[in-house]
Amino acid sequence: MQLIEERLRSLMLQSLAGDAAAYRMFLDELTARLRSYLRRQLGGLPDEVEDLLQELLLAVHNKRHTYDPKQPLTAWVQAIARYKLVDLLRRRSRSNVLTDPLDEDDRVFATTANDAAEAQYDVAKLLRGLPDRQRLPILYVKIEGASVTDTAVRTGMSESAVKVGIHRGLKALAERIRSIG
Amino acid sequence: MKTEDLVALLSTGAEAVDLRLPSRRWLLALAGGALIAFLLTAGLLKLNPALWHQTSKPMFWVRESYCAVLGVLGVITVVRLARPGLRLGLVPMGIPVAVIAMWVLAVVTLVAASPQNRARLILGHTAGVCPFLIALVAAPLLIALLWVMRSLAPTRLRWSGAASGFAAGSIGALIYTLHCPELAAPFLAIWYLLGMLIPTAIGAWLGPRLLRW
After folding, report:
1. pLDDT tens, position by position, B134-175
2. CB–CB of A52/A83 below 8 Å?
3. Cα–Cα 20 to 30 A to A140, which of A32, A86, A93, B77?
4. Neighbours of A32 (CB within 10 A)
5. Could you say which DSSP state residue A181 is in?
6. Is A30:B51 a contact under the CB 8 Å cutoff?
7. CA triplet A118, B150, B15: central angle to 5 degrees?
8. What is the pLDDT of residues B22-61, one digit of tens each?
9. Phi, psi of B183, deg, nearest 5
């Protein structure tokens, strides 16, 4: 446990300093940890695991400025995961009462092990619903891997507008996922 | 989208994050909220003309420190609640301690006073309006604190809203003292506390509605 804490914390601190490769490693390790945590917690709702996992990753990303380097990273992640889990279960219990009294027949065929890494909603599709000033910066910088400067030239936006677009777009994406779930 | 694609999306081109952002926002919210609260007090309610004269009385400083201590404890609690997984520690416990200390002082004052003076010590001249005026002065602070809270990541929404309300209420009360002529401990123990509890209750109600993320 101590080892995980130290490793993830140092990756997080490098990420916050702007090291994208460290951030990738951080998110990969976090993904594996969170997935098995969610599988345990959502035993009765296997469909939800990957959805909530992606929602959690977006939350960690959008809220990473709230990490205090003086606190244990695992405590920070744990608090976010628990918050999102409770939020999901509350939404579920509400919508189940209202709309789906029984869907056992669907579930038998709904999931296979191969699907496990794919969420039910399509982030790519949700992305298409965003306004251009958010969608294009995310598409060019985050998916195609272009630099902020090139993206600014391509879209005719200023560099700071590109950064703001990415930031707001990912927040909007997290909100859309949440309202679907 | 596959989760690994999302991870790639999030990490590609990720830039440095300014870790001082939360503290800067809190300072901005407190300064802005306090400024508007002061303008409300000075413009709408008028400053107490006897303010300078009051400063020579010990109870003036008791009143100021009471509000200031509660404000500091409230703000520390708010700041901690806005970050996931941060321990609150013993800081919030200081709030009931300060409140009880004021009650003790109020009881001692009432016991020492002659019976015909007691009603005046409790009600002063402004008991009917005091809690509402404190709540009014606290409103801009509450709005500012909730606005910053929304941009961070509170996980206990009702508590976060309530703490924002209490911090706003006690700083609002501190600013309201520039108008308020009352200095008696029994008055402060009852009506000032009620004034702080109005924004606290509003914050607790708003928390789960405004702060979800």
Report:
1. 999 999 999 999 999 999 999 999 999 999 999 999 999 999
2. no
3. A32
4. 10
5. -
6. no
7. 60
8. 999 999 999 999 999 999 999 999 999 999 999 999 999 9
9. -130, -5
Report residue B64 as tokens: 């100021």
Architecture of domain A121-181: Orthogonal Bundle (1.10)
Q: Which residues of B touch A (CB under 8 A)?
A: 1-19, 21-22, 82-86, 152-153, 155, 212-213
What is the separation of C-alpha B95 from the centre of its chain, rounded to a whole number of angstroms?
Answer: 11
Q: What is the ipTM of this complex?
A: 0.89
pLDDT at A94: 67
Ranges of chain A whose pLDDT falls below 70: 1, 94-118, 120, 181
Chain B residues within an 8 Å CB radius of A35:
3
- Compute the count of residue pairs across chains A and B with CB atoms less than 8 Å apart: 122
* Contacts of A44 by beta carbon, 8 Å cutoff, 6+ apart: none
Per-residue DSSP letters for A40-105?
Answer: HHTTT-TTHHHHHHHHHHHHHHHTGGG--TTS-HHHHHHHHHHHHHHHHHHHHHHHHHHT-S--HH
Residue B108 has pLDDT above 90, yes or no: yes
